[in-house]
Each structure stands twice: as structure tokens, then as C-alpha cells.
Amino acid sequence: MQSPLQHLLTEISGRVNPSECTTIATAAAEAARHCLEVPSFADVAAVLLATNVQVCAADEEHVLSCKQRGTAAFGRAQYKQAAQLFSEATRYCDELSSTDYGAVLAARLYCNRALCLTKMQPPRLQEALQDSSAAIACDPTFPKAWYRRACAARALGTVAGPVVLQDARRALQLLQQAAQDTSAAAALVAELEAEQEASEGASTAGGTGSGTSNRHSAAAPAAAALAATAAGSASANGYAATGKLSEGALVPAGADSAAALRLLLQAAGQQLAVAESEEAGRGLVAAASLAAGQDVAQDQPFAHALTKEGRRQVCATCMARLADVAAPFYCRHCPMPSYCSAACRAADPYHQPGGAECGRPWAALLPAEALAALRLARRMAALGERHPAAQQVAALGTHFQELDPSDAAQLAALAAVTHATWQRAVLESAAARAAAGQLPGGGAAHAGSAAGEEAGEEAEEALLSCVTVEAVLSALCRFQINGLAVVPSQRRGSEDRLALALYPVASLMNHSCLPNVAVRFEGSKLIVRTVEAVPAGQPLLHCYGPQAGEMTTPQRQRLLRAQYYFTCRCRACSPAPVQLESPAAAGLKCPSFGGSDGSAGRCAGAVQPPCSVAAGVLHRYQLSAGTGACTACGARLVMDRWQEQQLPELQAAAEAQAAAVAALAQQDRQQQQAGPAAGAAVQQAIRTLRQCLRQRQQHLHPHNLLLGSTHDALAHAWHLAGNHEAAAQHLRHSLAILAHSYPPASTAVAFQQRQLAETLRLAAAAASAATAAAAEAFLCEARQADEAAEAVLQLHFGPEARDR
Ligand SMILES: C[S@@+](CC[C@H](N)C(=O)[O-])C[C@H]1O[C@@H](n2cnc3c(N)ncnc32)[C@H](O)[C@@H]1O
Predict the structure, then answer these.
(1) Best probe residue, ligand 1, of 398, 505, 510 (max atoms within 8 Å of C-beta)
(2) Which ipTM score applies to this complex?
(3) d(Cα 100, Cα 139) in Å, to the nearest integer?
(4) Which of 533, 534, 561, 531 is nearest to 546 (CA)?
(5) Apex CA 85: angle with CA 83 and CA 87, to 5°?
(6) DSSP result, 584-625
(7) Exposure pattern of 51-78 as b/e (b: 16+ CB <10 Å)?
(8) Per residue in 607-644, is it b (16+ CB within 10 Å) or e — as a string?
């Protein structure tokens, strides 16, 4: 069933005249015209723009309950749990911090969390320092906040002594004023003064100049560092901490786009250049010879939007993993974004007070690609054409002309709805502000100026006139063919996508099914690493999705055309492709392989059904079209028999495997949440998968990747059943099949080797004392598999290979 939003998009696109979809401008105008006319727009907009999403609205009772439970957990020395409860309370409490009472409460919560962080093993001092600064920012009269900061800074040892002493003295002074216990603070001040005297004595004795001048020079940068921590001014993701979109260098007025490109390339890496080729247009090339296994470029997104999964897992600004953060920060005004630090919260231009994305669900309910495109259009308009990255993004190709009219109308409808929703959000918050008697400030923003980059509603209002539906549609097209999915590792499933992002330099990289570079992400930073030596002047090519070995050439080409609208001419696809691919990977057994009669002299060749078989049928069974004759002996497929008997059996095997895999996934979840999986369900899945394997083995060539997938599913099932030895046996089979299809040094094979090594270790651990020799053999095989995998993964991912 369609959601109301999908229904609205279908309704609008159904009204768009396909003959008007020949250019972005005409399609956008058509969709914009129909968008507001469609009656259901008002209903959908009401949901998208509802303000009741503010579940963070001040809820004092919840704050106090979390604080109380946090204090109790602290009392039981459960510091991690206590920090989590204080975090939960700060999420709500920040909403109160505009009131005196709220600010006082927030300061206590940050201070308590800072103490938990210092007690954790190992202590999280940097985060404790940040929390005590946050506490000071909320309530500068709170002595404990100054005391905690002094303690954290001293333990860290990265902040100069005089600054730490300043904090400790401040704490002491406030305690004295409030007539509270001063003993701990007084002791700290005394210790710090003694340390300082000793260090002054040492430096005077060493004849390095007067103590006073030394003190000042040391304190100044350190004080600035602390002040920066307090204000949260670290820069992340290319955004300045104030929530402004970072300016970066401007291209001088009148300079050409080549100057903009030079500036960008310099920032991304010293060994890069851009060259144009007939087959693939512009592309990144090596400016000098590059060795294999070298990080050669890095890039930060020009625009990005988190997916639903990403909102749960990573910081909205820098995409650091929230699981690694002991003390997260939340938007002060709505429940949507989480941050790894106060600095990242301050740097999010889309969640500043009054911002159009903050406090309303539309930004989370629209597809991530639509929000990413809107952000791209807003940022381009805000930065103006003298910004090098904006210039480069504007020069990226769009594929609108290649879309079929109904897809073009759908995309235009999405652009129109996204634009109209944003426009309403901006206008509604402006109206609310006016009703509350808040007049616009003096610094109204203008596109292209530094002020134009300001976040918040005044800047959004200024952008209303420059960000049109046409600009959003054009941004959507740019994102579709130039954007990248940010993933936590090289796993490619859509469920792993954390964000969609457009990288100004990396978007210049062309595709190869047999790439010479690998791309990885550290938070939002994209890193390009060579996986083979690249001579000077040669293109740097990464893989947009389908790799050689993973699919046949026609399958890869179909996918690239459907997703990126080009016919790939890489070295694995060109008319004389590098000899990688055996027809066996997606082929059937040779008809003269023999039946069940065990006849000798079987042919080991493969046969692919002839092109006359409907493409849909081939696609469904993941087979590729060929000549219908065996590649080795020329024997022809008997089409009637194949269609009447083999095809239905293959279909039954595919369906049964899909059902068994789904059942295993459910058992897996159950095992993770509540202990052992149900034995009967797993045994049933094993029986089904064995039957699939027999059917597939009967018809498919032994190197067909589909057989590998059945072995993988069986390995999973045996793993759940606790029989790691049987699981390892299936993984060995699957590895052998992968090794036939994938090029050498491929990560797909390496990840499989790693999985085999883990399974073998489990099998060794489960082996009884009576089978010590078997256990040793498993461990020996595991070591070999690990070594082979490490060599490849290091090449692709560098030192982080171990974490993958
Ligand atoms: C992300 S952009 C790469 C930069 C692009 N070449 C440019 O000039 O802006 C992707 C586009 O480059 C082209 N392209 C990339 N790899 C290609 C390949 N292997 N064969 C043909 N065209 C390719 C296609 O037009 C594709 O849509």
C-alpha cells in the first residue's frame, strides 16, 4: 500500500504532461504548478510540518527522574549507565536552558556526566573536559563545573598549568562566596600553585627568560584552547562551529572554473590532476606515479543527509559513530539529530534555533535523497558562484535528458513537494516569529555573501528567492549520478547506508568494474587509497557498485545504465575485456555433463541459455544470455527440457532458499536478543537448504555464484545450530566458488577468508580434548586464511583493516 506521501507524488506526476519533461526547467515548472493544486498536498503538508514532533518539549518530571536514576547508578559505581541516564536528561533539559532554572539544572547534569566520564575505565577525559565546559556555559556560577574542568584538564595534561590553576581558583572563590565546603578545591589550588612555583623555578634556573613572560606565552594559546572547548568551536565536516556553512577560499572574481578546480585539488591531495577522456568525460588522474596501498586523496562532503539508519548510528555533523561516544549531545529543540560533541551540535547549520528543518518531521519523513538535494541547492545558493566547491558541483553532469518521461515526472514531483514543504516551513516560522514580536535582525542574509551562509531562519528567508523547484530538481539529478552512499565499511547493502553525500573532488572519479583505488570513510571524511600502482597521468578509478566477478559483464552494464546512465567502457567491460570472467559464474552445466547415470568423461564446460530466452527470465534466475551451446564441447541446451524441467526446479530452489534465509535471519535476531535460536526452526532451514543445494548442483555449473550463496546460507544455519565444523565446510566451498569468479586480491574473497578463519577458530574451541589434533589443524587453517585476508584488506583499507 502506498504511503500518503507516495500517493501524493504519484498524483502530481500523473498530472505532469510528459511532453513538458524535456528539460529540467519545464518539468520543474509543471510539477510546481500541479503540486499545490492537488488536494492531498494540504493533508500531507500538515503531517510533514506538524510541530508536535517536539517531544523534547520541556518535561521536567522526566529530567528529574533521569537525574535521580543517574545518581543512583553512580552510587552503585555503574558509571556508563549513569552517564547514559544523564545524557537522556540533557536531551530534554536543554529545552529548559533558556530559563534560569533550566540552565542551572543543565549545568548540574553536564557536571555529573563529566564526573562519570572521569570514573570510567579507561577515563574519557577529553569528553569530561567538554562536559564541564558545557556546564560552565550553562551556569558560570556553578563552582563544581570549574573544579571538574580543572581536574579533567590537569589529568589530560594538554592544557597549560596556569589555565588549570585559573579554573581551580575560580571554583574556590565561588565556593567561598556560597559558604560551601572548600576543602577539595583549596587542596587542588595549593597543589597547582606548588607545581607552578616549581616549574617557574626550573625555568628561571634554566635562564629561559622571565617567569612572567613565559607564563603569558604559555597561557595564551591554552586559554584560547579552553575557551574554544567551552564555546564548542571545533570545526567539523567543513562547517564552522557557529552553525554557518563554512566559507573556505573564494575564487577571485572573473577567474575561470580551472582555477576553482586547482584550489579544490590542492586541498584534497598533492598528487591529483583532472583530465578529460572521450569515453568517460572528466576524471581524476594521478599527477605523479603512485605506489599501491597509498592514501592519495581526501574529501569532505559539500552536502549530505543522514538516512534513518544513519540518524540512529552517527553524529549528524561529522558522522562519527555514536557507539564510540560516552557523552552524546542532542539537538536542543527537536528529537531528530544526535551529535558526538557540543562542537558538532553548534556546527549543524540545519538545527539552529528557528531553522526550517528543526522541530518538524518533514526532514526525516522525506526520502534522504530529497533532503540531500534540497541542502545541496540551499548551500549552492548560499555560497554563490565564487566558491570553488560550489562551482565544481555546478559543473557536474545531470542525466535528466536520459530519463524516460514517467521517471522524469516522478523526480520533478519529488522536487516540487520537497521545495514546497521547505518553503512552508520557512514561512510558518517567520510568521510565528513575527507574531511573537521578534522583528528580523539587522543582518539579513544575501546569497553569495558570507552572511548568506548563516543558518537559522533569517538566512533561510533570504534563500527563498534563489532556491527554486528547478534548482532542487537539478540538485536531485546531480545527487543521483554523482552522490555516494556513506557506509560504515565496504559492505554494500542498502541497510548499511548511513548517509547520502556529494563530495566535490571524489565526484570527479570515474568508474571501473576492476578499480585501481578503494574508497573508505572515516566519519564523513572520504579517503581514496590506491590498490595497485598507478602510473602518472593514468586515471584513478573506483567502483560505483558492481565489481567484476560479482556479476557478469551484461549484468553490470545493465545496472550501471539503470543507475548512472552510462555504458561502462572500463578494462573489464571493453570489447576486449581483461580475461576475468568465466561463463560458469552465471551459467548452467554442460548438457553432456551427464545425468544421474554416473557416465564417465563428463564435460566440465558451461552453457548459457540463448538470447532468445526472455531477459526477464534470465534476470530472475541470475543467469546471463549466451549462445545456448557449451563453451567447451559445443553441446547444445535442449530448450524444451530446460524450460519444462530445469527452470521450474531452479525457481523452486530460489524461492525455498529465500524463505529459509528469512527464517534464519529471524532466528539470528532471536539468538542475539534472548539466547539460543529455536532448534527445530534451524533444523528445518538446514533441510530446506540442502534440498536447494541438490537442485542447484544438478543444473548449475559448479562455479556458479548461486551455489556459493546456498553454501553461505547453510554455513549460517550450521553456525546457529552450533556445528562450526559443518559451517566451515560450506564456507570452504563458497570460497572456492568466489575464487573462480573474482579477480585476485579482491575484498569479497578476503572477507570470506576472514569469516572462514573465525568459524574455524570456533570449531577449534568446540573440539573436545580427544580431537586436539583436529583443533590444531583448524587453527592452522584459520591462521593461513587470516594472513591471506589481511594482506588484501591492508591494501584496500590501510591500518584500519583490522576493524573491518
Ligand atoms: C561521478 S561522475 C564522474 C565525473 C564525470 N566524468 C564528469 O565529467 O563530471 C559519473 C559520470 O561519469 C561518466 N563515467 C564514469 N565512469 C565511466 C565509465 N567507466 N565509462 C563511461 N562513462 C563513465 C558517466 O557519464 C557517469 O554518469
Answers:
(1) 510
(2) 0.99
(3) 9
(4) 561
(5) 70
(6) GGG-EEPGGG--TT--SS----EE--BTTS-HHHHHHTT---
(7) eebeebebbeeebeebbebbeebbeeee
(8) bbbeeebeeeebeebbbbbbebbbbeeeeebeeeebee
Classify strands 541-542 and 510-511 as parallel, antiparallel or unpaired: parallel
Q: Which of 241-245, 671-675, 745-749 has the highest mean pLDDT?
A: 745-749
Nearest atom within ligand 1 for CA of residue 397: 9
Instruction: Report pLDDT digits (tens) over 279-315.
Output: 899 999 999 999 999 999 999 999 999 998 898 899 9
Look at residue 374 in the predicted model and tell me its pLDDT: 97
Fold of 60-200+226-231: 1.25.40
Distance of CA 329 to the CA centre of its chain: 19
Q: What is the DSSP letter of 645?
A: I
Cα 638 → chain centroid:
48
Is the beta carbon of 62 within 6 A of some atom in ligand 1?
Answer: no
The Cα–Cα gap between 9 and 186 comes to 67
Cell of 137: 556555559
Tell me how far the alpha carbon of residue 788 is from its chain's centroid.
28
Ligand 1 site-directed mutation target among 564, 567, 569, 574, most atoms within 8 Å of CB: 564
The count of C-alpha atoms lying within 13 angstroms of the C-alpha of 380, restricted to the half-sphere facing its C-beta, is 24
Q: What is the C-alpha separation between 613 and 232, in angstroms, rounded?
A: 63
Nearest to 350 by CA among 340, 363, 335: 363
pLDDT higher than 70, residue 688: yes
Q: Exposed (0-12), middle (13-18) or buried (19+): which is 769, by Cβ within 10 Å?
A: exposed
Mean pLDDT of the chain: 82
280 lines ligand 1 (CB under 6 A): yes
Q: Which tens digits make up the pLDDT trace of 63-116?
A: 788 899 999 999 999 999 999 899 888 876 655 655 677 788 888 999 999 999
- The domain spans of the chain are 1-48+237-268+343-489, 60-200+226-231, 587-595+603-735, 742-804
**Residues 242, 239: Cα–Cα separation, whole Å:** 8
Residue 478, ligand 1, Cβ within 6 A: no
CA distance linking residue 787 with residue 688, whole number of Å: 34
Position 511 scores a pLDDT of 96
Instruction: Give pLDDT tens digits for 195-205.
Output: 888 877 666 55
